[in-house]
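Budget justification, computational time. The allocation requested in the original proposal was used primarily to generate structure tokens for proteins on the priority list. As evidence of use, we reproduce two of the resulting records. The first is shown immediately below.
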Amino acid sequence: MNENNEERYKITKKVGIYGIIGNVFLLIIKTIVGFTSKSQAMIADSINSAGDIFASLMAFIGNKIASAPKDEDHNFGHGKAEYLFSLFIAISMILVSIKTIIDAITSLVNGSELKFSWWLIIVCIVTIIVKLSLYTYTKIAYKKCKNILLEANMEDHRNDCIITTFTLISALLSVKGIHWFDGVVGIGISIWICKTGIEIFMESYNILMDISIDEETKDIILDVIHAYKDVKAINNISSTPVGNKYIIFLVIAVDGNMTTFESHKLADELENTIAELDNVYKAIVHVEPFLDENEDKDI
């Protein structure tokens, strides 16, 4: 494991541990207060915290697997484990949201009344403080290592701050006898969880299905290649994701009279230059002799 990957692993591991500790604490207090006050919003929030524990656990395990160095069976490392485990997180979020939507609708139909409690207010305030702290810490960590597992956790912490704010509002409205808002908030929380889950699912799915590198990075790579005058044409450029980075495959055309040594030297220079880009894991350049029909292939 190189120095950057080791630091990335340590940072993500810390975030996962802190997330588990924080969410276990919140799950306990939310569950107790939610069921004693019969608050559908708080019950939905407590189930969300259970999902958060699972998400933090998946981040911890996924990060451990993804940080393993390449071996004979996995020549490009285990980076895709990040996206596989973030897929698990997304699916759990979607399933949780479906359950809480059903419960909240049932509460609205049956006319279940929220029992106001100052403990409900205190738990909401404590949750917002804890989640805001976890969000800030995770955001700083995500900026350092751009790990999708951290991104999923970061967005989840942010969403929880907003969600619990609405839970707090519904608890305060219950004092005035407005109980229906609690059920509506429960539904809103569930839809928010579902939306976030779908977004994370799609991002992970695209990587696992080998989505191509973004157009901005592709243009940067093309600019790098065009800076070399000996490159007469670019016959093909393709890519495949490996963890949070990409392997770039290039086929370039050069003067047919160029020596093998010179063409390989050019390919090596291109590979090293492109590999220096932030989201490029490795560049592989194949050289072909330039033909007139290559002009039409130039990208």
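The second record produced under the same allocation is shown here.
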Amino acid sequence: MSLDKLSSLARHELAQLNFPPANWVPPSSGPDGRPLLDALVVGGGMCGQTAAFALMREGVRNIRCLDREPRGREGPWATYARMEILRSPKHLTGPDLGVAALTYRAWHEAKYGLDHWEKLHKIARLDWAAYLLWVRDTAGIPVENDVEVVSLNLKKEFIEVKTTTSSFHAKKVVLALGREGSGALRWPEFETFNPDNRGARVFHSADDIDFKALKGKRVGILGAGSSAFDNAGEALEAGAAEVTMFARRPQLPQVNKSKWTAFAGFQHGYAALDDASRWRFYTYIFSEQVPPPYESVLRCEKNKGFSIRFSEGWKDIEEDDELRITTSKARYIFDAVIVCTGFDVNLMDRPEITTFRDVIDTWRSHISTEEAEKFPEEARFPYLGDAFQLQGKAGGLQRVHVFNWGCTLSHGALAGDIPGIEIGANRLAQGIARDLFLEDADLHYRKLLAHNEDELKPTQYFVSLSSRRPA
């Protein structure tokens, strides 16, 4: 089957599922007299487009999904994610929301054939990026590119949204901003180095890096997680003379504890646990850390120029005529360095929510002072409601839903990791649908009273409205 035929089949299956259903949310106007948007999804990557898809399946049609990047550059897949293949097993589903013809397997078989699928080890990263775009186009998910949300201003009955191109008002906002969606780039605390003033030889793993320029160069890598090995592999394959990786730990983590959580019981049940139990689960998982995929390690260790220095974190970076790294044991000179320390969770770093970030409830207020000091980043995670909505005393906070990595302590890894994305998107959309109905419950009741679709008109038992007697 060709991709064109698969697209036709998928659209037919969607039609069989009555997708998209009619929009049931009553229209309303904002303070400027223009129509009020029912839901805005900020971010058009995997989480954003799946959230929009789920909302449409619930009959919430008056939505927009915005992404600041051009088409094809949403999320990490075609940008700073530099692994050759995905970590997740190839059989996992998620962005398809249960539609068989929209699964990655269906797309892969249509593109490469069944035999190729059977022999496939894991999904190629760029194939996954292409697949997501195909799902978007096939399902008609309305992602608007090159539009950045600048600020959100909470009101009691709506949210004022300002973007780089316009301003409008929305009843609900979904923050689907990926790994950095609840914080920013994570940089270690160095003795003198300030990442805001870094030169052209110091990179973060999320930067747009010209690896070809590293040919013949000496490259230092800080970190020993997945992104560290992926960036090291890119540098080595681009011809770097040597790549030296530095890790604080004496050895690599050996077991991916989060992999254990990828089953329906945990994904459905975790959010229903009490706070102490949820805190216990994820502080343990985070503290164990995640080993890099063995494929990423093999990609690096087959190169003679690759080495790892364990138990040797960086104390400082100095940039002048030379680029010097000071560790706990020695000093090194490199031509370029890449800091692969991921993303921090700190709502204070998010520019979109400046006007209300100080009043957002976090996990800090739900644990002891001792636990907050022991796990400071975990304590900064937002404490979310049952549909990923923010909590706090400020009016309107629950109109904002966090569908990114920041949801993990409250809901588990349902917004970012492929295994949980379907459960997460459906939970999010169903919660938003519930809230929108409750907001207009009186209006819906009036519509119920006015409903008069004559079922028996073709029969001899039909009675006109004016002649009907009370039961």
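A brief technical remark on that second record: The chain has a mean pLDDT of 94.
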